[in-house]
Amino acid sequence: MRKGRPMARAKETREGAEEVERCPECGSTHLVRDYERGELTCEECGLVIDDQLIDQGPEWRAFDVEQGEKRARTGAPMTYTIHDKGLSTEISWKNKDSYGKSIPTRNRAQLYRLRKWQRRIRVSNATERNLAFALGELDRMASAMGLPRNVRETAAMIYRKAVNNNLIRGRSIEGVVAASLYAACRQCNVPRTLDEVAGSSRVGRKEIGRTYRFMTRELKLKLMPTKPQDYVSRFCSELKLSGDVQTKATEILKEASKRELTSGRGPTGVAAAAIYISSITANERRTQREVANVAGVTEVTIRNRYKELTEKLGIEVEL
User: Fold this and answer.
1) What are phi and psi of 64, to 5 degrees?
2) 219, 248, 265: which is the final residue of a domain?
3) Region 24-34: what's the mean pLDDT?
4) Does pTM surpass 0.70?
5) With CB atoms 3.0 to 4.6 Å apart as the test, which of 115, 132, 143, 170 could cross-link to 83 if both were Cys?
6) Range of 285's domain?
């Protein structure tokens, strides 16, 4: 069997007819597709026209979700938020077989036992037990904080690295999970304060901060410090302020960072003060207490940062 150049197919088109594939050597239309070898060959002269043929699979359409699930040939994508990465099999809770028929009552006790042992063998050793508990806790905290999928995946990766480097010994699982989640928020530019993370976990702020510093040092995580601008959109959304207020607050913070008024100060306090100033100038006034409650800082902090920004930037505000 002679081999030609890959993808050297001759296609002729007649008016009102479909495209016909022909052999470039002899012009024959008798072509054979061998999906096992991935070859397209000519029956007449034996020329291998293509040696990198892709099996596109059968064409099918689904008209509802149930049909799509039945006809799908793949499962859920791999995820790091499950201890076995979502690759193990699972016996469904539905008492039905692969054809959708109900399983007889006499076989249901056996199915129940199979389902129970399947759950047990999914977690086989101490490391998997640790991961199963920790990743469940991570998912609970992320749901409580309303974090997106990419942050959860990043936090699961950081926790797995901590397990592989034996950083969990002597520390609580909840503390390491909370520190991983905080680091993932910083890494994905979805900033959350330590107080917010501590509010969703069962450990204190001090322990989370201590574990976070230890993990960043040992795992060599390169995390940039959070900027006040990162908090503006979330705080404005919670205060139900318009886009004009958000834009004005961002401009104030940019000017403040140019003059180095944000260095050495808590980003949430500076962001809260900028929002407070912009809400007054845009006639959408919010009280210092309202802004402080959303930002998680004290009213005194907002007053101090407010005075600094108005004096140094020359902003006139009518109280």
Assistant:
1) -155, 175
2) 219
3) 84
4) no
5) 132
6) 229-313
